[in-house]
Amino acid sequence: YLFSGRREWQFASWLLHSGLSIGKIDDFLALEMVSVKFEHHPESLPSGPCWKSQVIPTSHPTKSPVVLYWQDPLECIATLFNHPLFHNHIDYTACKVYSTAQKASRIYTE
User: Alpha-carbon distance 9 to 106, whole Å?
Assistant: First the structure.
């Protein structure tokens, strides 16, 4: 697992939501009294989905090749589901949403 326990997860979550700049967080983590396991093991941090690319052939000449870049949607979804920031913020069940308290008009969205 990315975090060794709940305390470490809470610490990382607080840093991310603290409003501190990345520079200030780096300064804080550089203090001798602060010990973070990822400082010596960056490979243990989660990575996002890899970008893929493909050159698209064209029937007309171009100055540079036309390249299509994409990411695997299933990898993107897996990354979102496994991200600690979204831990308690993803609903796995459908719900009905109405525009008024009287439930006269239902709203359909993604």
Answer: 38
